[in-house]
Amino acid sequence: MKLIIAIIQPHKLEDVKRELYAANVNLITVSEVLGHGQQKGVTEVYRGAKETGNLLRKVRLEIAINENFVEPTINAIMKGARTGNIGDGKIFVVDLPRCIRIRTGEEGREAIG
Amino acid sequence: MDMINSGDTAWVLLSAALVMLMTPGLAFFYGGMVRRKNVLGMLMQCFAILCILSLQWVLFGYSLSFGPSTGFWGGLQWFGLNGVGLEPYADYAGTIPHQAFMIFQAMFAIITPALIIGAFAERMKFSAFIVFTLLWAFLVYDPICHWVWGIGGWLRNMGALDFAGGTVVHINAGIAALVMALVVGKRKGYENKATPLHNLPFTVLGAALLWFGWFGFNAGSALAANGLAVNAFVVTNTAAAAAGLSWALLEWIFNGKPTMFGVATGAVAGLVAITPAAGFVNVISAILIGFGVSALCYFAVSVIKPKLGYDDSLDAFGVHGIGGIWGAIATGLFASKAINAAGNDGLLLGNFALMKAQLVAVLVTIVYSFVVTFVIAKLVDKFIGLRVSEEEENIGLDLTQHHERAYTILE
Fold first, then answer.
1. Is the predicted ipTM greater than 0.85, yes or no?
2. pLDDT value at position A49?
């Protein structure tokens, strides 16, 4: 089992969701986060006080999947989130030792889907 | 000799303050409807209009609009309020200081371009917006205002009735909004989708401030604290109530549930529609005007707009354009000399002449506003560019146009 964590542009969320559904990946958790990579953030000015390098809004996706869904999920996120510009985000794939469904107590492959 | 009446003066000054509050009210009405990365952009455009057009009005706008003249504009004899003093000017209002009439009218000149911004929400460049707004005030608002309300204005002389600005304000701004939606183009990523409202309570607060301010807009247009003002006050509240309720009922029938957004939208549409009629119709007519406007605007924004595919993002045309046209026609239908001897009888009382004048005024406003707004928009687009870049649109107007953000996520 793998956990895929993706950081994407907020305005690409709809596109990514559409691609994930098309790839039959229906279980995602979405949260709002702040961050910046090479994009170096934005400048804000409040009553003349300038702040540079402030963090940008991003969206973080978490998707727990079985091995056979790893490549389709990565492809779907790439397809939905890519604009070709700096700031498109990253995808992290990490091993997932356990997964438990709270309602039934099921574990592993059954619990994940 | 004209005498200043203290009651009349107090009411008109208070009404001017009420109408002033409508522009920030509109800012919240619209601001709640946009995504949160654009809310300051919306509020900023309304406040910028408050500042810029207040100055334009006292320097040029009032003279161009209300200076006595049979020409295109009212002329510049009242430039910088030269000759607009503290004595009454009987041709406009015989019992209040001329400057009280001027500042009341200033608030109308301010809110009209503010109505348009709903059409290009979330994608207009701030610098281009300022230039567009100023040109529009000089070339569209001031001439039409002069024709309908100014001494010597040709639509006024023809007998068209517009009590508080259905033609000058709402049709005018509504048509300009349609043009801007077409010229600026659709928002990215929300083609033919409902606007994802970021703060519906803001929108409801804005609608409530508009309803409150509209008592000044309509009842203040009597320009005196008299029975006519009371009639306008009562029919204004009645039409807003009828339209808010009927919009909710339409949603209940067609979508299964009545919505808060629907009631707020319907109430504003009702206020738009009663505006030209407020000084000429009775309360039963006001109820019919309210029911009629909900049906028409609901149809316009939920059926016609998606079919035609233009992105009038916050329905400035769908509510103010369509509602204003209905209001002007309804004035031609329901007006009665029994309410206002200075008015006229409508079609239902057997007088066709008023309806004819109303239709001419509506058509002239539609054609003039459409053509001139289109030319201004194209010029500004050529020299400045109307739209922000794609990247700026993605990040939002708050950060890219103003370097500030409305909400924090982390402390």
1. no
2. 81
With a CB-CB cutoff of 8 Å, which residues 68-97 of chain A face chain B?
85
Cα-based torsion angle of the residue sequence B342, B347, B351, B353 in order, rounded to the nearest 10 degrees = 80
The pLDDT value recorded for residue A40 is 67
**Are A44 and B399 within 8 A, CB to CB?**
yes
The correct CATH number of A2-112 out of 1.10.630.10, 1.20.1050.10, 3.40.50.2000, 3.30.70.120 is: 3.30.70.120
- B164 pLDDT tier (thresholds 50, 70, 90): very high
Nearest to B276 by CA among B367, B177, B353, B344: B344
- What's the pTM? 0.92
Q: What is the pLDDT of residues B93-119, one digit of tens each?
A: 999 999 999 999 999 999 999 999 999
Question: d(Cα B150, Cα B148) in Å, to the nearest integer?
Answer: 6
> Between chains, do B403 and A43 touch, taking CB under 8 Å as contact?
yes
Would the CB atoms of A42 and B188 count as touching at under 8 Å?
A: no
Chain B contact set for A80 (CB, 8 A):
none
pLDDT in tens, B1-25: 468 999 999 999 999 999 999 999 9
Does B394 contact A57 at a Cβ distance shorter than 8 Å? no
Residue B282 has pLDDT above 90, yes or no: yes
- Alpha carbon dihedral B320, B325, B328, B333, in 10-degree steps, equals -130
Task: Compute the nearest-CA separation of A68 from chain B (Å).
Answer: 31
Q: Which of residues 22-41 of A touch B (CB under 8 A)?
A: 32-34
Residue of A nearest to B391 (CA): A85
Lookup: tokens for B198: 């970021």
CB-closest option in B394, B404, B409 to A32:
B409
CA distance B409 to chain A (A): 8
Cβ count near A90 (within 10 Å): 13
pLDDT at position B192 over 60: no
Domains and CATH numbers, chain B: 6-402 (1.10.3430.10)
What is the rounded distance in angstroms from the CA atom of residue B333 to the CA atom of residue B358?
A: 10
